Amino acid sequence: MSTRGHGGRGGSAGGSKGREAKQRSFAFPNGWGGRRKGSGRKPKGERAGVPHDVRAPLASRFPVQVTMRVKAGLPSLRGLREYAALRGAIRAGCERGGFRLVHYSVQSNHLHLIVEGGCRSMLSRGVQGLTIRMARALNRLWRRAGSVFADRYHDRILRSPSEVWNALRYVLCNARKHGAWNSRTRPDPCSSGGWFDGWNEMEPEEVVPPPTARARTWLLGEGWRRFGMISIGAAPVRARAAVQPSGRRRT
Prior knowledge:
The chain contains seven helices and five strands. By secondary structure, it is α+β, with helices and mostly antiparallel strands. The chain has one domain: Transposase IS200-like (Alpha-Beta Plaits, 2-Layer Sandwich), CATH 3.30.70. A hairpin with a 3-residue loop joins strand 3 and strand 4 (about 110-115). Helix 3 runs antiparallel to helix 4 (about 120-140). The longest helix has 23 residues, at about 120-140. It is globular, with a radius of gyration of 28 Å. The termini are far apart. Residues about 1-15 and about 245-250 have low confidence and may be disordered.
């Protein structure tokens, strides 16, 4: 009997059991495929967009600062007709289903809002509804169709009186940062500053009803007042430079 079969392939197969398998690697031609710098989904618009991360849960006691930007190439939002259209949309959508828009300022290509919401979903639906109203109003004015806002809005939850105080100053005095308004005795007319009752220099507007909702959270209604009144001529301060009750800046 021949033993060739036992000593040939059978023997080599048995000896390969102890060998470690190696995975072959393939090079992608012309640099396509694989992990590399600059790969992945690109943000919309000229500016880097807001990351599409899951937003933090929101407790109803905390107000929120929101920033919304419009697409490049559109007219300034601070034009007389543009601002009139926006204010009408803001008035119509400032209080809906647990969402409240309390303060705002309109800049040439973006808006700053301070809002309240019963929960994260109420806030999101309220901002979305407001965005749709503003976009439709502007598109009617401009006689165009298509999207108006560039990307996902940015928001920041305000959890302390100092954060709210600084957010109020940042939003209501924001036109000074961009050189669009420099008066030290009158608030920016493209904002809710005319109805704000926390200015050092003036009382709020009483003749014309405000286009915004009344604050219901303690932080936005009363808590921020621990830091005193705000000056119309104050420079806007970002959250990272928030003041402390002692008057010092946070480090």
